[in-house]
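Structure (tokenized):
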């Protein structure tokens, strides 16, 4: 084994890498080259930078916008006895300072950062003291304004090249990027030379099915009732997750629901039950899926149209990671198409509305003009919308647009567990225990159950402490509050909230710039994404797999032969080869002229019955039509 295989085996138990993984590791770790890894969902992106980082002297910076995924990866590394730390806007300033000091003075191998933290003064001041060996940029499509989830804070990542005095390789990773976005990622990250490692987007084991039906729920219930294995059903809103899960259970199907509005405990329990197999089907919004490590998902159903091919492809790609046959089904109706077109205006409120929302946010947090840069606030959309009489969804989209223009950063809901840190010396703590005997038992309880509490903030669980002391949560909470008030510990209670970060100082309405050209271009781009999704759903002539991978700029791939479109072709009794050859020849003939069927017979050297079958299929799928003079022509 080489050193990379040794690391892989030691920490993950695998003996061999998947295709391209080791090539990418060698490029960044040995050759010190910048690299872009374009690997589909489930392609093992995180192992690439983790193995590379462990092979290098120094620390790896991992930049990702997904705080929940960041925390999961840090926890998984720590379980493998690999030292890792996460820094994001959900932490207090003291916690961030302690975390960075650990990176400087101890053996931390991975520092996970949310992108808005890169430009914070506390990080910049300590960056020169970090021995950075590698910079990994996860979800790299976020750096491109042409990507489907553009985040302006990603544009600051390239500044790290100037703030680190020696060359450090950049490894960008993404599962979904068009050719335009691939180029943009490398330009924005200032790659020294173009260097893309691309695995084919084609997932040969996934069978893509699309159904347009009037009664989606009835069709779903009938279809899913035949399934006996694990699956995910994605829906567009929280209410539907519960409704569909109830209907499935009424049919005797073991299902549950999941969305971002549930408590942390509820979400963790539901995900655990589904992952371990005691729950067959999860009905969820797109909040469910990031970081899921389950290889035997046999089907993913989309109950309605996603907003983009990128989102659909990523979510559908959670099926069949074990490379065994799996289904990705899309069920939609005419109403879904109507709503998809309406979503363009919903996602892009008028510019005056956006300005009013920005002004209201400043008032909501009582920020004077010219202040607030870098400040982080808990954000409750419903409280904000209610106070200023905004429609919640419209206000949310206005805030997202302000994020596009780099004025704000809005995170998803972040769950931060309770943490404590003793802020007195052991000698002072002993004196406190002697003079305050009523706290002695509880302090000993903390010291027995949690290590490292004098050196850093440590996660605690009040419910666990209550159980082992046979008391209530409130009793434990009051002890923690009193010790904190007595300046013995710093206690930070758990919370779950979205965070709003002012990335610039608050501006007056007159100074707030929302250029019409930018607004129109972003709206146009979104419309194009919606249109591409609708064309995929309503298309009946092109192989589903080919349609998806063509969107990402990949060609020279044969049709899958298993999707609903290919199956209709297969019923013609022709082989894939015969059908494709005949279709290609007819297309070449009719693209530039009109011909009679007999003229086509003369040129296409195949059995007339087979030619007739292909012509019939092309007519049925509106690829060719008959003129008034009974000639055939290609429909453009």
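Design, position by position:
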């Amino acid at each position: 084994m080489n050193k990379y295989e040794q690391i892989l085996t030691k920490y993950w138990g695998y003996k061999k890498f998947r295709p391209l993984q080791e090539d990418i590791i060698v490029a960044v770790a040995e050759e010190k080259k910048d690299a872009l890894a374009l690997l589909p969902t489930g392609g093992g992106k995180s192992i690439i930078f983790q193995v590379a980082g462990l092979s290098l002297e120094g620390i790896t910076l991992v930049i990702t916008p997904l705080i929940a995924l960041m925390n999961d990866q840090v926890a998984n590394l720590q379980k493998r006895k690999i030292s890792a730390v996460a820094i994001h806007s959900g932490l207090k300033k003291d916690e961030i300072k302690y975390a960075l000091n650990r990176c400087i003075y101890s053996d931390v191998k991975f520092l996970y950062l949310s992108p808005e933290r890169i430009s914070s003064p506390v990080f910049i001041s300590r960056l020169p003291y970090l021995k950075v060996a590698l910079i990994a940029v996860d979800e790299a499509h976020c750096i491109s304004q042409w990507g489907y989830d553009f985040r302006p804070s990603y544009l600051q990542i390239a500044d790290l090249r100037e703030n680190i005095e020696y060359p450090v390789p950049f490894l960008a990773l993404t599962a979904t990027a068009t050719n335009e976005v691939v180029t943009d990622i490398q330009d924005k990250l200032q790659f020294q030379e173009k260097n893309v490692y691309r695995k084919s987007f084609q997932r040969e084991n996934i069978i893509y099915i699309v159904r347009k039906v009037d009664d989606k729920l009835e069709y779903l219930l009938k279809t899913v009732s035949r399934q006996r294995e694990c699956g995910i059903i994605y829906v567009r809103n929280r209410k539907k997750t519960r409704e569909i899960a109830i209907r499935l259970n009424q049919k005797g199907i073991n299902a549950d629901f999941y969305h971002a509005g549930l408590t942390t405990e509820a979400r963790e329990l539901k995900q655990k039950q589904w992952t371990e197999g005691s729950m067959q089907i999860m009905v969820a919004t797109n909040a469910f899926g990031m970081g899921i490590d389950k290889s035997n998902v046999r089907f993913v159903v989309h109950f309605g149209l996603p907003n983009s091919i990128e989102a659909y492809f990523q979510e559908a790609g959670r099926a069949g990671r074990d490379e065994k046959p799996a289904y990705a089904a899309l069920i939609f109706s005419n109403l879904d198409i109507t709503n998809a077109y309406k979503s363009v205006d919903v996602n892009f409120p008028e510019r005056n509305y956006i300005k009013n929302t920005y002004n209201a946010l400043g008032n909501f947090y009582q920020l004077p003009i010219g202040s607030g840069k870098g400040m982080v606030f808990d954000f409750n959309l419903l409280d904000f919308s209610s106070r200023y009489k905004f429609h919640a969804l419209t206000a949310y989209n206005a805030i997202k647009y302000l994020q596009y223009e780099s004025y704000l950063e809005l995170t998803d809901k972040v769950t931060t567990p309770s943490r404590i840190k003793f802020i007195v010396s052991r000698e002072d703590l002993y004196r406190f225990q002697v003079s305050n005997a009523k706290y002695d038992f509880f302090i000993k309880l903390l010291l027995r159950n949690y290590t490292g509490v004098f050196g850093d903030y440590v996660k605690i669980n009040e419910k666990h402490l209550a159980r082992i002391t046979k008391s209530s949560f409130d009793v434990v909470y009051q002890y923690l509050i009193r010790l904190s008030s007595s300046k013995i510990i710093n206690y930070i209670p758990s919370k779950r909230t979205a965070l709003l970060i002012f990335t610039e100082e608050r501006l007056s309405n007159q100074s707030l710039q929302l250029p019409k050209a930018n607004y129109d271009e972003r709206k146009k781009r979104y419309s194009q994404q919606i249109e591409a999704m609708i064309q995929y759903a309503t298309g009946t002539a092109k192989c589903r797999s080919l349609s998806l991978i063509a969107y990402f700029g990949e060609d020279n791939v044969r049709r899958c032969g298993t999707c609903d479109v290919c199956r209709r072709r297969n019923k013609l009794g022709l082989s894939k080869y015969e059908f494709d050859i005949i279709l290609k020849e007819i297309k070449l003939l009719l693209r530039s002229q009109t011909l009679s069927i007999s003229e086509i017979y003369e040129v296409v050297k195949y059995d007339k019955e087979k030619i007739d079958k292909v012509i019939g299929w092309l007519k049925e799928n509106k690829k060719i039509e008959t003129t008034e003079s009974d000639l055939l022509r290609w429909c453009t």
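Reviewer-requested clarification: The two ends are 56 Å apart (CA to CA). The chain has five domains: 3-198, 206-332, 341-413+498-526, 418-493, 572-634.
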